[in-house]
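Can you give me the bound-state structure? Components:
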Amino acid sequence: MENTVKQLVEKYGNDRSRLMDILIDIQETTGYINSEAIEEIAQLLAMSRIDVEQTITFYHFFSTKPKGKYAVYLNTSPVAYMFGREAVKETFEKELGIKFGDVTKDGLVGLYDTPCIGMNDQEPAAIINHKIFTRLTPYRVREIVKLMKEGKNMDELRNESYGDGKNHLPSLRSMVSSNIRRKGMILSDDYQSGTVIRDFLPKMSPESVIAEIKHSHIRGRGGAGFPTGLKWEFCRRAKGSKHYVVCNADEGEPGTFKDRVILTEKPELVFEGMALAGYAIGGDEGILYLRYEYRYLNNYLLEVLQNMRDNNLLGKNISGIEGFDFDIRIQFGAGSYVCGEETALLESLEGKRGEPRDKPPFPVEKGYLGQPTIVNNVETFATAVRIVQNGGEWFTQFGTEDSTGTKILSISGDCMFPGVYEVNWGFNVEDMLNMVGAYEVQAVQVGGPSGTLIGPEEFHRTLGYSDLSTGGSMIIFNKQRNLLRDVVVNFMEFFIDESCGSCSTCRNMTQVLNNKLKKILVGKGVPKDLIDLKSWSKNLIASRCGLGQTAANPIISSLKNFPHLYSALIQKDKQFDEGFDMEKAIQASCTYVGRVPNLNHH
Amino acid sequence: MSNLIKFKIDGTECMAESGKYIVEAAADNGIFIPTLCNMKGVKPKGACRVCTVRINGRLMTSCTTPVTDGMEIESHSEEIEELRKSIVELLFVSGNHFCPACEKSGNCELQALAYLYQMMVPRFPYEFPLKAVDAHSPKIIKDQNRCIFCKRCIKTIKDEEGRSYFAFRNRGHKLEVVLDEEMGNKMDDETAILAMNNCPVGSILFKEKGFDVPIGKRKYDHKPIGSEIKL
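Here's the bound-state model for the whole set.
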């Protein structure tokens, strides 16, 4: 073990900023990161042991205990529950005789919960040793458990066909379906990979590339909506010894999966966009920060990158342009939603906990390793290629004045045809619901948990930066769903688990609000509780990053748009209720001291 | 002094060297902005959010934001002060802070801020979380009940090779600041006392010594926090 750890650390140049890679390699070769390995890493990188553990314990796919020969991570997103997660979970537990969170005695199988794995269009889904198993049912689980007990290899666990599109390729062999339901400029098949690099860049200066991007008025597709052209211009102008291009493929917002589809079906377009950005800002190194949930894409994407190098679309003097050097490496995360925040992502890239940085300075000035860096979304890079190909002016004909171009939506939940839909900005929610075959709709979660939950009165609203801004996650709930219990609590618990914990507000207030929400759900709420929820949640706006600032949105937006759901649960004639459950408390204390509770006599 | 710039705090004209953090620039002008995680001379990490101010409609932490020419800062409005008070209350309910039994009482910055904001009873329900006390080190006690995650010990307490004695463990609501077991065993008196002194609360205490200065004669017993800054 010692030997391999040493070799691994050396493989990454004894570089502390590559700690994530070192840990991922160890986790994958031994199934966990044991105490000796931690000690060895600490010695080799001149860190304290606790400092290494600091990174390990931040990411939920790292473990200091054996995870089981087969580690099953079952998604916990609301849509998974809507499509039968509970039965799937029970079957796993029954067949294996363990609970979620445990490993079988023989060390064969471990069962774990994991937040949205980007498969909302084919839930319930699980990750087993990096392979994705979709559309799970109790029957299917029994089969999988049987095969695991027989010690079958990962490919033998699969007894269904590969997914559509490119999922059947030898380097991918995945059961995931791409489910592309509507194509636009990004998902269309009429772009020949490399066209912009070969035919356009030789005739364009970096400045003119930036000018086209600015002219297109494209704004970042990750959700924050910062003008892409400006970002590239700031970065180009910033002084530094090196400029970096980072692609944010950490899509962790529950309900979004469009980056999975883009990276499966159009990875060349994304990589070409990164090279194009490198040309524009004067950078020669690109990094794709990919969420660990999509580890199954690794071999495939490495192959795509190699093909591009072989075709001189990456590497040195790309496409014969003297001095245009650019290459891309893939950096994996290890399970953390907040790493989708660009500065947290940079921290993670440097091998640290994914704690957002204080801004200013912004990444365009001081980003990766303190150097000027652009961080853009997968979709933004892909779109940039089509903009340069057709011109910024052409691009403005799509969408609306303040939201130009197209947007790829990840649509899931109660509808006939979940999947990805590329639409022009300005699309309204009503049309969207009609497009996907959604009936008897009670609510739509626009933009994931950090977005808003809207009801029918707002379905006339349009998607765009000035109205309903979204990174693309659209989850539909029909009238049978219990929004507070099954959606709002789930999302609040998601934020509680995913907070980095740095800000006092986000670390604590999410918990305080969720406790109050639960008090209301068990019928102990009073009118003042609703007032408290509203006023206390304001405290979160003082948090450093978007996660904290939006962490109360599930409560705030449901309180605003579905007040009747709350008021139906409130004890209207009561001024005060401490929420204390006497029977439960007596039972707990009796269990503790070993007495039989006599609840009739208190 | 060509790099002096002008800015305003709550309408009051101020001057400072360009690039100074707002908290320090304010102090230079006799204006106190409360802080908790911040420590002079140490790279800030807006963690506690107590020093939040409003600039151009946005909430920013004044310990991490450099002052710029013409900046207009809102700091002591009712809304901002109410926010700060709520953050202090939140810190009280999310830990177990029993001031009368704490060695740091009177020297504690969290307690001092609670007095400053005249906190009687926090508006939020107490969580009474179960937290551990780590006494493995022969030199210090790390009491998790009182930790407010300011990160000061993580940033400032290091050995000759620059390795940290303290680090975060886990994340979110499960976050802890923990002491390296081996390094904790070998800690010397000087480091242990520095760790205690850098801790704004009573989460790090030097062992076998306490109450040198009696309660009643401590730093904040007679003067409120920030009084050394106010003109």
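A couple of observations. The mean pLDDT of chain B is 95. The longest strand of chain B covers residues 4-9.
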